[in-house]
Amino acid sequence: MAEDLYEKGNDGNCMRRMMFGLDTLVELDDGRMVPAINLDNAATTPPFKGVMKEIEDHLRYYGSIGRGKGQKSEYSTEVYIRVRDIIKDFVGANSDIYTVFYAGNTTDGMNKLASALIENPSDMVLTTRMEHHANDLPWRKRAKTVFAEVDDKGRLIVDDVERLLKLHKGKIKYVTITAASNVTGYVNDVHYIAKIAHRHGAKIIVDGAQIVAHREFSMLGKTPEENIDFFVFSAHKMYAPFGSGAVVGLTCELNKHIPKFYGGGMVETVCDDSISYVMAPDLYEAGSPNYPGIVGMAKAAEILRDIGFEYVRKHEQLLTRRMLDGLKEFPEVILYGDSENIYDRIGLTVFNLYGMRPAEVASALAGYRAIAVRHAAFCAHPYVRRLTGVKEQGDSSCITPEGMVRVSFGIYNDEADVDAFLAAIKELLYGKHVWKYIKRKVNSVILENMPYDRG
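Given the sequence above, the corresponding structure tokens read:
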């Protein structure tokens, strides 16, 4: 179905009809009410209408999960358990070696995983300089971390991963890496990296937050050596933004550890002086779960599979190419990453404008044309410094970088959105009345009260 739409020249409008809330009016700085153009999908996506309906339908039968014998409780518990298989199928983990435990989001999942897997501060973890803080800070906090570098275009230097593994001679326990960057959109060959990691005795953990809505993903490689050991993602980046996510991992490995997160549901029995714990995945799910979020996540996965990831890839490449070609027409635009070879990028572009701060650009686009983008350093400060050429001069100069402006596409965005954005950039650069208004508005109100980068 989706392939047919693409071949007929679909401009995204068919997909727009599947989304909830896109026609909601927002207020511009001049008081006018207009529909927003959301180009900040890498941060969070609007929900599918099908997700909203699925949640509403299931809430009619909502009861406590695994804690009652009432009909609604048993129904909800059955759904809750069944979703694990839906998630396994969605990420190609169709094997008895894997299980799924639920999390609030990727950050929550990574922290729970790190708290369990790292047993000693001397444990070594290899990560990269392109990671989101969610796949950096949990490991820095608990383990000894080493970092593979990126090249001048921002792509991961895979040879550096292998160099570090060789250098540390089997001491590195885990290699943890993003499947797709939230800054440049580069897609890493995590199966190839898994093969390297396994060759050196390390397990591989993949941050899947930015890949799940853009590319088909499989935990299983072409050979067992290429299999992914752990995969973590958020539903709010795949059209089910209700505070849910999942960790898919090796059951045997998860059963060897206990997360530093305790409460009801993870124990078999508690005595005065001893505790016995249940096995994974329940071991990692203390407390009452986010049932609506889990239901929504499963439905979003189903809808994405029905649309087809080849359609998503083609559509994103079309929009990204149009955006990059349009931005290149303005000499004042600074582009980051490889803007020529975009075969390994999801639908995402980062840039700056000479003479304007990223916060000014983002605020102007929102206030003057209701275009939502993201600015600052995208919770990836070391990576952004490398891309923008900002050097650290020791701890005293380690301040938050001003960063860039990011445009990121969803499946419902179309060429009209790109053209509206490019027209707005032209207004900002060459419309003097617009620029004077924006400078006054931004400098007097917004920048003084705006936190730089909240993640």
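Residues 2-47+308-447 form a domain with the Aspartate Aminotransferase, domain 1 fold (CATH 3.90.1150.10). Try to locate this feature in the token string yourself.
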